[in-house]
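Supplementary notes (optional reading)

For those who missed the lab, this is the record we used. Protein: FAS1 domain-containing protein. Length: 369 residues.
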Amino acid sequence: MRSSILIPLVAASFGVAQNVNSTYVTGLVNALNGWGLTSLTSGLTSLSSDPTTQALLARLPNGTRTIFAPNNAALAAAGGAPFNGSTLAYHILSGTFTANNIAKDPAHTIGRTFLNGSLVQLEGNEPQVLALQGSNTTLFACNQPNTTSILESNVYQNLVVHTIDNVLVIPQTPAVLLGLSNFSSLASVAGPALPAIEAAHGITIFAPTNDAFTAAQSSLGGANSSTVTNILENHIINGTALYSSEFGSGTHVSNGGQQLTFNTNSSGTFVTSGPSTAQVITSDVLMSNGVVHVINGVLLNSNFNPTAASSAYAAATSSAGTSGVAPTNTGPIAGSGGNNGGHNGAIGVNPVSALFAFVGVAAGALFVL
């Protein structure tokens, strides 16, 4: 009885705004209820006057889309967490994502969601992404607070709908991420630069673990603040979010003007800067304005080339996507052997560099022997 009441309510509520196709929405609500996702349809009803949700549903019939639909238990477990238009937008991807085109462990597939606006600060006004990974039996959303699995998959017209067992959490700001205990050493040395990191539109950080910083102390000897600053610069690509699926494409230059190269073999994926190599132990930890890749060593490259840095930053920012609200990708984001959209270079002299001039002083406590 409840489902039959909700169907006309949802269709009527959305059909009068934002050019929403009420016939399409009615069919979708019918399908969701048939798959046991009655709490989700209740949530849609509660958002009937929300402009973000209205705009999402108006765009939904156009092109191929993938929806990650939390089941009733997932929405109940979310408790006080807000289910709003932004949360809904993060559960919708542009393109078709199924077991056939999702990378298998340890690789990731990156897809653009519909989430944009105040909660996203990527280059070129690109929407936020979701990292996915497959196994022999199921698909997973990566680097979520709770392990999030796809329980079943269905199709409605142009939509692939994956039922999932948790509500996806929108990527947080760098300040929130660096506040986690396993990044405490990085947070200590990067603290003065945090405002500039948060202000960046598209940023990639190769973040050494606490153990990596401890091990680096013996290698740095009596390094001065300038040396430490240069080393930290070479852990950042500013102006672009470089996801693991793009490691093999294009040329990637650090904030210190040094080339970053990548190698993947049976032991894992490795990043090299100058004479120093570290293993990527966790990739694609998403932030509101970029991505973090956790590495098991400090990249001890103290070289700095401001000309190369400036040139790479200019190239990255000039070629960054200009998609606005609508996602430009219709499937997984992946390298193609050449430069890929806004990810064809990396970064140069910019406000992050200016603030890192102070980081070396703060880092002295970590690296003085």
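If you only remember one thing from this example: The first strand starts at residue 65 and ends at 70.
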